[in-house]
What does this fold into?
Amino acid sequence: MFALWYLTFAVDEIRKRLAWLFSSNKPAAPALDNKPANPAPAKESAPAPAPAPAPAPAPKPAAVPAPKPDPPKPAPVVAKPTPVPVPATVPTPPKEEPTPKPKAEPVPAPVVAPPKPSPAPAKPSSPPKQADKMPIPLPKSLTEANTNGQNGNAANGGNVDERVFGGQQAEKVLPAAKEASNDFIKGETNAFIQSIKEAQQLGERKQDTMVDAAVLAKLEEGYAKLAASDSKSLLKKYLTKEVFDNLKNKVTPTFKSTLLDVIQSGLENHDSGVGIYAPDAEAYTVFADLFDPIIEDYHGGFKKTDKHPASTFGDVSTFGNVDPTNEYVISTRVRCGRSMQGYPFNPCLTEAQYKEMEGKVSSTLSGLEGELKGKFYPLTGMEKAVQQQLIDDHFLFKEGDRFLQAANACRFWPSGRGIYHNDAKTFLVWCNEEDHLRIISMQQGGDLGQIYKRLVTAVNEIEKRVPFSHDDRLGFLTFCPTNLGTTIRASVHIKVPKLASNKAKLEEVAAKYNLQVRGTRGEHTEAEGGVYDISNKRRMGLTEFEAVKEMYDGITELIKLEKSL
It folds into this structure.
């Protein structure tokens, strides 16, 4: 009889606790911590509220009225501790006396704790606190199941209490709720991660258009000084206030180059002819409002809608000697600039990249054979006397060019810089001077045909080993906008004393043939001994062959004019 009574009580207790769990809308974990559904310990702990069942054994009549006290008066249950020792006699039914208190002491540890939840069922009589509600909205599946046990949905079989205690097993309901909760949590997590990604992308986009305040201040100051100067540079000509304001907050996507990186050489050197450089290849696009008109002006009308033609060296045997008698031309040189694909230009290069590029160039050139075979000489460790001799022989670039220094093109000097030349010193390669590579073919006299043929052979051989940076519209890309397209510059060191007696006149005549007049040692230098460096000016909108032919035709006409004076 006692076993039957206990079983009835245990089932009733389980129902009450489950009902309280769902109706309070609280997390299940705290209520299940007491584990009342475990049969073995339940038989020992359940008798704590033993007075609850009406059909209790006759020996305990005093405990009968206790199970149904008024909800607000749970105290009487606690006030009658005398029946509590009874559970200790449960394992031995013959002994019904409440005296064996010593045996109850080892059991109460797990037994006494469970009675604490017994007054819990009375809490639902008062409205649950708002703080006890779940902090996040329930998914649709749980909402339709009406987990708070109120206003049951008939279409779903009534409320949860009815479904659980009306014949359905709790085990069948809880897994469904758990699965729905997992789906909801997974969805919320994915949404949260996506929001983080979107925030990061937004931050990156904002950063792409963010220029440091110090950079802006320097830009404003430099622009004001340039505008007030008498500079004749193309930078001043085309950097209007409107263009300046439109570009001053822009940066290139990959290397974050600013307008200051583009124009700082021209801002510091008002005697510049051009005044701008491209810190990376993307600058030609981001700062196109400034680059395009300068390119059009310098390269003889190459508009922003024009496209540079495909590379063509033409028939190398076309050209002959521009000065067969060796009266005027001292030496002839044809060179081209190239940038190694995958690297930015000077201002954005790290010292490690300089050294890496030097290693690639050195190993590549060491594989050349025949007339091109030679040796690479790094500037690092080169004796000053040797370096100066190479500069005096017009083989090596000089250090300390203020225009390049202002453009941040001389950082980490001399790391990563070097020169290669063949045994006859008629073929040279400069590594990381102004451009990544300057490929040069040169010799004494005016035999342009032989010099051009050597250059074409060298460029084709190097390109087989090192990929070059190229743009469909602008052609080969380099640091300076004057050196785009073919990047070909064919030049002579020439003495024309009659024409040179009036340099302005010389420059006027040269311009008619698209030629540029420079000092003996190149741009920004003076003529030494009446010797000028004269070369083709245009490099864009025409092929390599056409660029060299412009120089060939122009020099031929200048020599004729000098002879006629």
The first strand starts at residue 329 and ends at 338.
